[in-house]
Amino acid sequence: MKTRFLLTAALLSGLLLSCTHKLKDGDYTLTVLSTNDVHGTWFDSTYVDGKVRKSLFAMNYYIDSVRTADGFGNVLLVDAGDCLQGDNAPYYFNYIDTLTPHLFPRLLEYMQYDAVAMGNHDIETGHKVYDRVAADLKRVGAPFLAGNAIRNDNGEPYFPLYKMVEKAGLRIAVIGYNNANIKAWLSEELWSGMHFVSIAQLTQADVDKVRAKEHPDVVVAAMHSACGQGDGKVLEAEALDAFNLVKGVDWLICGHDHRPYVETRDSCALLNSGSHSRYVAHGKMHLKVEKGKIVSKSFETDLIPVKAEKADPAMREYFRKDFEAVRDFTLQEVGILNTELYTRDAYKGMCDYMNLIHTLCLSQAPAQISFAAPLTYNGHVKAGTLVFNDLFTIYPFENQLYVVKMTGAEIQKYLEVSYENWICTIAKPTDHVLKIQSRDDPRTQQRGWSFINRAYNFDSAAGINYTVDVTKPFGSRIVITSMADGTPFQPEKTYNVAMTSYRASGGGDLKAAGVDTDRIDERVVARYPEIRNLLYDYLMENGSIDPEVIGNPAVIGKWEFIPEKLARPALEQDMALLFKR
Q1: Exposure of 15 by Cβ count < 10 A (0-12 exposed, 13-18 middle, 19+ buried)?
Q2: Of the candidates 91, 246, 305, 549, which lies 20 to 30 Å from 38 by C-alpha distance?
């Protein structure tokens, strides 16, 4: 009874504080640090060659430096999502060692984060993983926030909408959101029991509600959504939409697009640290209070470049056993590779890398045709003994494999759409055949040649024989001559097409081929585990990857850019620009 009374008294005290909170007159300075899209770059060393890389360990050096300079109690630290996917370490703690407490909450507890907005790749890990991590994050005081992930049963958020924090003598509400476009990328089984609502649709009402209930001095909106153009047209890019329209937000922290970016306005500032531990986004907010009210505020923002060699040695030592566990797992031998794999070769035609992916897909019954794209932009796996780490280079994502019904006409139309994203129509060998441009890359802050569109959507097909004519315009480039075994390919016939769960859920341009991905379940005839797991199973069964096996034309068919005398020199020219060879 006494315990219950004490808890009730504490709760009542907190409620009274939120209602009676009044700032003392004077000047206040709040420092805000943010990270996002770290994608598992937790450790400062790679697992195979020991190379030093940018990491959470290195970011912690800068975070601690700012806290030392400004005072720990004056610094707010928030992450904007995509934490649990992209590297060996999250994979290991997501799916292999599920008994040891998950590493990610322990890292955030060590670094003393205040809150984390969920990302789409966090949802991609599935309920079993993110529900466990969410519980641990709540325990360490840095909860997963996603106020737009709405439960189907009661209409309430599946994850907390916000967290109250006190820093620099200020009451701060951190409101969090996940990307609203998850349905277009991920299988529903990964987010069963909920649905995702547009951030822009909710933010103003949520900010008003939290301000009315908690009376915060400062409101931070942390969202795993790209900056976008601020035109309200792109569901996965709503950050500038909110920045332009929502009133009552002081800081907007975003991510998803891997674009380091900061902006300061009179009433609000925006922070996006980019991705993969390259920067810590940094800002200061100066407030002047008179008669208990904020009468002025101003902002400073910048990006702190992270140097890999600045990794915090104490943090490295603290998590050494976790690193060694991940390293030992990923260095275990899994088979033999009898050819070198260069992922970039996929951009200029058939290659051993894509032949391997297509062979894996076509080996899953009842697949007859395969769609697959290069998911590692410029990876290289040497011939010889493969370790598990190499499988992350070959297939970096946890995509499942689906087999989906499509007509021959839909297949042809989809290939037209895919190659339209990929190539240009040319008239001479000096024309750019790959759809590339020289520009300042907002992700890397470097100038150079890069694809205009996203290479992970450049699907080629296997199981059929076809050509891609680089002299023809969109809609007439693709000629499918037959199935791989020589039997006729028929536009009116229905085929079983293997593709990733990302593609089947709407990622890319499958809708442009006439496939309603909102009703994809009506077309799915089989589902398989993650494609990396299929690769592992293939190696366990066959022992090796052999070019003559994965390149068997009777299984995967053949495709090529034509006319060769025009296409080949143009491709080589563009590849040299892209990869500086």
Answers
A1: exposed
A2: 246
Residue 269 buriedness (CB in 10 A; 0-12 / 13-18 / 19+): buried
Which residues are bridge partners to 52 per DSSP?
45
Predicted structure pTM score: 0.89
Pairing label, strands 269-273, 251-253: parallel
pLDDT surpassing 80 at residue 455: yes
Q: How far apart are CA 255 and CA 117, in angstroms?
A: 10
Query: Cα separation of 223 and 226, whole Å?
Result: 9
Q: In the beta sheet, which residues pair with residue 195?
A: 150
Q: Is 357 within 8 Å of 487 (Cβ atoms)?
A: no
Report whether 435 contacts 451 (CB < 8 A).
yes
Burial environment of residue 8 by CB neighbours within 10 A (0 to 12, 13 to 18, 19 or more): exposed
User: Is residue 477 over pLDDT 60?
Assistant: yes
Q: Residue range 113-122: average pLDDT?
A: 98
- Taking only Cα atoms into account, the Rg of the chain, rounded to an integer number of angstroms, comes to 26
- H or E stretch including 405? strand 400-407
CA 351 to each of CA 192, 341, 537: distance values in angstroms, whole numbers, following the listed order: 38, 8, 22
